[in-house]
Design a protein that fits this description.
five-stranded antiparallel sheet; flat; Immunoglobulin-like; single chain; 233 residues; 4 helices
Length: 233
C-alpha cells in the first residue's frame, strides 16, 4: 500500500474511534471491570454476604432492635459509581434544591449503573434483596471481588404546612403550601467477597451514611379574590 493509502486508512480508523465516542469507551471499560466477576461465577471462587439492620439499644444489656424492612442492592464495585454517590452527599447542604433532589439523584445513578451492567451482559451481578423481620439478609453465590452495597429505608410519610403571603400566592399560584414527604435513610459499604468466606455488614442507626427527604406531593394556596369594597382615599 502506498504512503497516501496508509495515511487514508489511518484517518478512517481515527474517524471510526471518534464516532464511537465516550459511550462506547465507557462500555468497554465496564466490560473489563465485570469480566473477572463473570469468569468466577461458574467456578468455586464464590462467597457470601450477610447484612444486619438494627437499632442500637438505649439501655445497657438490652438487645438491639431490628430495623423495619431495609431494601438493598449489591453491585460490582465501581469507583465511578461511588464518586457519583459521594458527589450527591457532598452537595447535600449547598441549597434547598440539592437537598430535596438528593434521593432522586441517587436513584438515577443506581438505575443507570444497573442498566449499564445489563448492557454488557452482567445483569445477573445486580443482586437486590430486603431484610426480613429480624433485620437480616443473606446473599449467596457471589463471585470473589470487591462489591458495593447500597441500602435504604423509607421513613413515615409526613406533611408540613407553609404560610405564604397573599401577594406571593397570587404571583406564584403553583407554589405548594402543604408538602408531603418521607425521609430516606441510606447505608453504604464496600465489601470484599472471598472464596468460601462470609462477609458481614452491619447497618445500625449509628452507621447511617446519608439521610434526605423524598417529596411526594403538595397543594397550592389559591390567591385571595379581590375585594369588592372600594378602598378609602
Amino acid at each position: 500500500m502506498s504512503r497516501r493509502g496508509l495515511r487514508r486508512a489511518a484517518l478512517i480508523v481515527a474517524a471510526g474511534v471518534a464516532v464511537a465516542g465516550p459511550g462506547m469507551a465507557a462500555e468497554t471499560d465496564l466490560a473489563n471491570l465485570v469480566e473477572p466477576y463473570l469468569k468466577a461465577r461458574g467456578g468455586e471462587a464464590l462467597g457470601v454476604v450477610t447484612a444486619r439492620a438494627y437499632v442500637e439499644p438505649t439501655r445497657v444489656g438490652a438487645a438491639p432492635t431490628p430495623q423495619p424492612p431495609v431494601s438493598m442492592v449489591l453491585l460490582p464495585y465501581s469507583a465511578e459509581f461511588e464518586a457519583e454517590l459521594d458527589a450527591v452527599k457532598a452537595g447535600l447542604r449547598n441549597s434547598v434544591d440539592t437537598f430535596t433532589q438528593a434521593v432522586g439523584r441517587i436513584e438515577s445513578a443506581r438505575v443507570e449503573y444497573e442498566r449499564a451492567l445489563v448492557t454488557v451482559g452482567a445483569g445477573e451481578l445486580v443482586r437486590s434483596e430486603a431484610t426480613d423481620a429480624q433485620g437480616l439478609v443473606e446473599l449467596t453465590g457471589l463471585p470473589a471481588g470487591d462489591w458495593l452495597l447500597l441500602a435504604w429505608r423509607e421513613g413515615a410519610h409526613l406533611s408540613k404546612h407553609y404560610k405564604i403571603r397573599d401577594q406571593d400566592a397570587k404571583r406564584y399560584p403553583d407554589l405548594p403550601t402543604t408538602v408531603t414527604y418521607s425521609m430516606v435513610t441510606y447505608w453504604r459499604a464496600r465489601v470484599t467477597v472471598r472464596r468460601g468466606e462470609t462477609a458481614e455488614v452491619s447497618m445500625s442507626d449509628r452507621s447511617v451514611w446519608m439521610t434526605a427527604p423524598r417529596q411526594e406531593g403538595g397543594s397550592s394556596k389559591p390567591p385571595r379574590p379581590p375585594s369588592s369594597t372600594p378602598k378609602r382615599r
